[in-house]
Design brief:
heterodimer; A: 222 residues; alpha/beta; Rossmann fold; 2 domains; four-stranded parallel beta sheet; three-stranded antiparallel beta sheet; 8 helices; 9 strands; 23% strand; elongated; B: 122 residues; mainly alpha; two-stranded parallel sheet; 4 helices; 2 strands
């Protein structure tokens, strides 16, 4: 899922201080699971902003709404009849949701309430770690299901670099060397022969290098 | 025991302090509470193992937020005691009420009063 983390309250206050009617818009998908922008976080942020402005002697209207998703037209349409009641929207969705809402409501200032971090997994309670960089050409089949693109700082594709020591990466003693993990897994799978095969040059045009990416599926279009 | 405790606080019963969430604490302040304290079981004695530890974290979280918005994090506190410690419960309630009296009314309550006066005048 997409991992995001809450922006500091001070930053959000700075973003919204000039508006009088603010809608806090949550998203029921990834940001709910990573506890950054779901219904609960909407309630907390709205309560905090209400109290902050009240203590400052400012009367502001802070509305709360959480949509099923902010990356689909039909759910964003649900706020069309209430959007004009507000001067600004703080979206707690990932960067996708903020942008999609901004595209839909052209004259409404859309402010991000979270920082979108990565595509990751919930490794433990309160711990989310990156697993994918959406490079567009998956190599997991030959790397034992461990991604050298997202988990190796250098994105090397043919074994570890010289910075790998005792299974850890030179960037931090807490960061596993992705290639050490790959080798360990290939050994467990009895597939070390795959490790000896030199990887062909990767097509990075499907990554960010090729500009914004699009998926078009004629078979599902109506 | 017939212990004397202050009358100016309200007890809200929870199945376990682990049930409390930061939003419950914030809502109390939003509605005009001057202070709030959570009384959980002794650490290590939670029937659900970590309910009171969770509560403590949430109280700390609420205190940080209240500090940040100028309400004052010292208005929330977590206490731990066992069910057999009635006198300690009374002592904690007196301690908290005195502390809140020292701090004075919450800025939110004062703001609410100002707002309702303004509305009445209008």
């Amino acid at each position: 899922m997409i991992i995001a983390e809450k922006k500091p309250i001070e930053e959000i206050i700075q973003e919204v201080k000039d508006f009088d009617r603010i809608l806090i818009l949550g998203c029921n998908e990834c940001v709910t699971v990573c506890e950054a922008g779901g219904k609960k976080e909407v309630e907390v942020l709205a309560s905090v902003l209400r109290m902050y402005f009240m203590a400052q002697g400012q009367e502001k209207t802070i509305g709360e709404r959480t949509l099923e998703r902010q990356c689909d037209h039909e759910y964003l349409e649900e706020i069309r009849n209430i959007i004009d009641d507000y001067d600004a929207v703080v979206s707690l969705a990932c960067g996708v949701g903020v942008q999609f809402a901004a595209e839909k409501y052209l004259t409404m200032p859309l402010l991000p309430g979270v920082n979108t971090v990565c595509l990751g997994a919930n490794e433990d309670r309160g711990l989310w770690t990156e697993r994918c960089q959406a490079c567009g050409t998956c190599v997991l089949a030959r790397t034992g299901g461990i991604c050298p693109v997202s988990r190796c700082a250098k994105r090397v594709l043919n074994g570890p670099c010289g910075g790998s020591t005792n299974g850890k990466c030179e960037i931090s003693k807490d960061t596993d060397c992705a290639w050490q993990l790959i080798i360990d897994r290939l050994k467990a799978l009895d597939k070390m022969d795959d490790y000896e095969k030199v990887a062909p040059v990767k097509d990075w045009s499907t990554d960010r290098a090729g500009g914004p990416r699009t998926v078009t599926r004629e078979d599902v279009k109506i | 025991m017939r212990l004397k405790i202050p009358t100016n606080f309200r007890i809200i019963r929870l199945p376990c302090t682990g049930k409390i969430d930061i939003i419950h604490i914030l809502r109390a302040f939003e509605k005009g509470a001057d202070g709030l304290y959570v009384v959980g079981c002794m650490e290590g004695d939670c029937h659900f193992n970590e309910g009171n530890f969770r509560a403590r974290k949430r109280v700390e979280q609420a205190a940080r937020v209240l500090d940040l918005i100028g309400v004052g994090g010292e208005r929330v506190k977590m206490y731990n005691l066992s069910s057999g410690e009635g006198p300690l419960f009374a002592q904690y309630s007196i301690e908290m009420v005195n502390k809140i009296k020292e701090l004075g009314p919450s800025p939110i309550r004062l703001a609410r009063q100002r707002m309702s006066k303004k509305a009445d005048a209008a």
